[in-house]
TrEMBL record:
Gene3D superfamilies registered for this protein in UniProt: 3.40.30.110
Entry annotated with the keyword Membrane: no
InterPro entries named in the record: Glutathione-S-Trfase_C-like, Glutathione-S-Trfase_C_sf, Glutathione_S-Trfase_N, GST_C, Thioredoxin-like_sf
SUPFAM superfamilies found in the cross-reference section: GST C-terminal domain-like, Thioredoxin-like
Protein name: Glutathione S-transferase
GO molecular function annotation: transferase activity
Domain (GST N-terminal): residue spans on this chain: 2-81
Keywords carried by this UniProt record: Transferase
Domain GST C-terminal intervals: 110-242
Length: 311
């Protein structure tokens, strides 16, 4: 089995979600740190332009979006399950709600001027301005409607009260006594809130939530070893993409194998990635692309939240 390599940076909420997946499953992985803002030349060599964080690399296979990364790690180690048997739909739906509604509310609250100033208090002003410009560009051209700060502030107590009540009445985690992908997807926006003293106070009135967050944090992040980006690129260059299934190709748009296509997110970070369509199934889109630095790689995207178009 090839090594699991995560391309991420420490402050990324979705990277925290993935690091906790490693912890829940007790997996070992290699950590490649990437810049929090563009340009990201080493990551771009692997993904072909997908810029969101994190990205999972397994040899010459590159997995984009934490929804698909979760399914790849489920294949790596089935137990403990991120998608508990018999509750797969509920787990996936709750995770999607956390990744979208909770996440975007937390971002709106954290992008208040005083919260941004606190987060970048020990860094040069230009670093803060560069980050804000980058995130503004990230959300251009997508279909996601981020709440205004006023909307997010108004709905945050509603969301937290609902979560507090459920945790008080119905077990230690969202689906009962065992953690799942739903817990990790609801946790990472709250983790991002807790990391900023200006807005962390919005979690103080919820003791059950704070205890739940502590239980999740206690799972740890697996066993990680630092890896330089150059080594990850060498690994991709020297590896061969995993053999794809011979059957199961299903295109909802009448595309054919080996057709030139682009794949892009539809919500935000919509930069298209060009390649050759080599597989498309119920949950996944896979394109092949070549780069002079990494050679031939297969880039994997989830079907939900992404579109594939003829080039």
């Amino acid at each position: 089995m090839s090594e699991l390599i995560l391309h991420h940076y420490p402050q990324s909420p979705f990277a925290e979600k993935t690091r906790l997946m490693f912890g829940l499953k007790g997996l070992s992985w290699h950590s490649v740190l990437i810049p929090p803002v563009m340009p990201k030349p080493d990551l771009t060599a692997l993904t072909g332009g997908y810029r969101r964080t994190p990205v999972l690399q397994v040899g010459a296979d590159i997995y984009c979006d934490t929804a698909l990364i979760a399914r790849r790690l489920e294949r790596e180690k089935a137990v403990p399950a991120l998608f508990p048997e018999g509750r797969e739909a509920v787990a996936a739906a709750l995770a999607q709600y956390g990744d979208q509604v909770l996440f975007h509310s937390s971002i709106a609250i954290n992008f208040q001027p005083e919260a941004v100033a606190a987060r970048f208090a020990d860094l040069p002003e230009e670093t803060m301005k560069s980050f804000v410009r980058d995130r503004r560009a990230l959300f251009e051209n997508g279909n996601v409607k981020r709440p205004s700060t006023d909307e997010a502030l108004a709905q945050w107590p509603v969301l937290m009260s609902r979560l507090e009540t459920q945790l008080e009445r119905d077990g230690e985690f969202l689906l009962g006594e065992e953690p799942s992908i739903a817990d990790l997807a609801w946790y990472h926006p709250l983790w991002f809130m807790a990391s900023n003293a200006v807005v962390a106070v919005m979690l103080e009135d919820y003791p059950m939530i704070r205890a739940w967050m502590a239980r999740i944090a206690d799972m740890g992040q697996g066993a990680s070893v630092k890896m330089e980006a150059a080594e990850a690129i060498r690994i991709a260059h020297d590896a061969t993409p995993e053999t794809l299934p011979e059957h199961g190709f299903v295109s909802s748009q009448g595309l054919t194998l080996d057709q030139s296509v682009t794949v892009s997110a539809v919500d935000y970070g919509c930069d298209p990635v060009a390649g050759t369509l080599v597989h498309e199934e119920l949950e996944e889109i896979v394109i092949a692309r070549e780069d002079e630095r990494v050679g031939l790689v297969h880039v994997h995207f989830p079907r939900v939240g992404f579109r594939v178009d003829a080039a």
